[in-house]
Write a structure and sequence with these properties.
The protein has 171 residues and is mainly β. It is built from no helices and 18 strands. Helices cover 0% and strands 21% of the residues. The radius of gyration is 26 Å and the shape is rod-shaped.
């Protein structure tokens, strides 16, 4: 019988390993297509018996099927993160940011700075400034609506982390 992870051409005496990028989950396969292509987020070396033979490492992903080696996986993009076996990067959550490639967990690079807010998939701790007339006194703000309206008698320039008291008698 022709073993798992191999195929046997009619008339051939010896089984042949399924090629890299393909897998053979059953016995008695008859051609190099084997059982099919390796799954996205993974790669399959020659002689693999599963579509998910080897997962792309955390911090990388592979959106295509038929990956043949770790080189088939690419670094996760800025603004996102990739757990092991990812077929696409997941966006960093609103309030946080992903400032570098290859991030591997939902914490990404951290929270946005005071005076700023970060939408989903942001790549900087200073992605969007709180507008003039508002301030942001906490990290991790997720939208302009999280910025606080400046109190009367104070000034709040763009990206303010706190209101600034106006001098007595000034306009």
């Amino acid at each position: 019988p022709c073993p798992v992870a191999h195929y046997c051409v009619s008339g051939s005496q010896a089984p042949t390993e399924c090629p890299a990028g393909r897998y053979g989950a059953a016995q008695q396969l008859t051609d190099s297509q084997c059982s099919g292509s390796c799954a996205s987020g993974h790669f399959c070396g020659a002689g693999s018996s599963s579509a998910t033979a080897t997962a792309c490492e955390a911090g990388s992903y592979n959106s295509a099927t038929g990956g043949t080696s770790a080189a088939s996986c690419q670094p996760c993009t800025r603004g996102g993160f990739c757990v092991a076996g990812s077929s696409e990067p997941a966006d960093c959550a609103a309030g946080g940011f992903g400032g570098e490639t290859g991030l591997s967990d939902a914490g990404c690079s951290g929270e946005c700075e005071q005076g700023y807010w970060c939408a989903t998939g942001s790549v900087s701790a200073k992605a969007a400034a709180c507008e003039e007339g508002t301030y942001g006194n906490a990290t991790g703000l997720t939208s302009q609506a999280n910025c606080t309206v400046c109190p009367e008698g104070h000034a709040c320039p763009e990206a303010a982390a706190a209101p600034i008291a106006c001098a007595v008698g000034s306009a």
